[in-house]
Design brief:
Layout lengths: L11 E3 L5 E3 L2 H7 L4 H20 L17 E5 L1 H12 L5 E5 L16 E6 H4 L10 H18 L6 E6 L10 H8 L9 H20 L17 E3 L3
Parallel strand pairs: 3-4, 4-5, 5-6
Antiparallel strand pairs: 1-2, 6-7
């Protein structure tokens, strides 16, 4: 597994030669030039670069021989989830993708995207059809602007696909922040404990990768499970 630290998005990135880059994304957002489309495209380019560095003729990682280039997938949360589709459209080496709680921005061509894809999000923002009740501009941005992007892309995902929502989850529930917040006594507004939300996320992400990268069919992805009653299968 490789985790990518996107240069100019984090507080600081330190390179092997000692160079340190700072965060420019926040300043770009303040100037109105940091569009979500640019962020997704930039992250997709980063992903392709890293894949090239890891699997190319002269790999940067000494143990790169352990990587099977025919079994590459991408999972992302929030902007990283939105970037998963962008990266798959830009790079055919990515066989499957997961978007966890991220409104998508990259336009899928009319002929569609036929590789496996999983939407996994919080019930409050990503239940199909929930955007129709939105009236205020703020709620449109928070709710309809999210679910409507998944509804748009769902029609263009022509391969294996699932749309799952988790009751009680908030945006941070699909990361380890919820677990850390519980340990620190912070209330992030979730109806699930950090440990439970992490268990759900791990189970479905692992099942998706096992099925589509290792060829091991996973019953967990076929129907609701009594082990995870918080998870609802959606059919938009």
């Amino acid at each position: 597994m490789a985790g990518i630290d996107h240069t100019y998005e984090s507080f600081a990135t330190v390179f092997p030669d000692g160079r340190v880059t700072t965060c420019l994304a926040r300043e770009a957002r303040r100037r109105g030039s940091g569009s979500q489309e640019k962020v997704a495209a930039g992250r997709a380019a980063d992903v392709s670069f890293v894949l090239g560095e890891l699997t190319g003729a002269h790999p940067a990682w000494p143990a790169a021989g352990l990587i099977d280039p025919s079994r590459i997938a991408m999972a992302g949360h929030s902007a990283g989830g939105a970037a998963a589709i962008a990266a798959m459209l830009a790079d055919p080496r990515i066989r499957a993708g997961i978007d966890m709680d991220g409104a998508t921005v990259a336009p899928i061509p009319d002929h569609g995207l036929s590789r496996p894809f999983l939407f996994l999000g919080k019930q409050s923002n990503y239940t199909p059809g929930s955007g129709g009740a939105v009236t205020t501009p703020r709620d449109w941005k928070l709710l309809r602007g999210a679910v409507s992007t998944w509804e748009r892309d769902w029609e263009l995902l022509t391969g294996w696909k699932r749309w799952l929502v988790v009751a009680g989850a908030v945006h941070a529930s699909f990361t380890d922040f919820g677990l850390l917040a519980d340990q620190a006594g912070m209330d992030i507004g979730a109806g699930l404990s950090g440990a439970r939300s992490l268990d759900i996320t791990r189970a479905y992400v692992r099942a998706f990768f096992d099925q589509h990268l290792l060829g091991r069919p996973q019953a967990l992805l076929d129907q609701p499970s009594p082990r995870y009653p918080e998870v609802t299968f959606c059919s938009p």
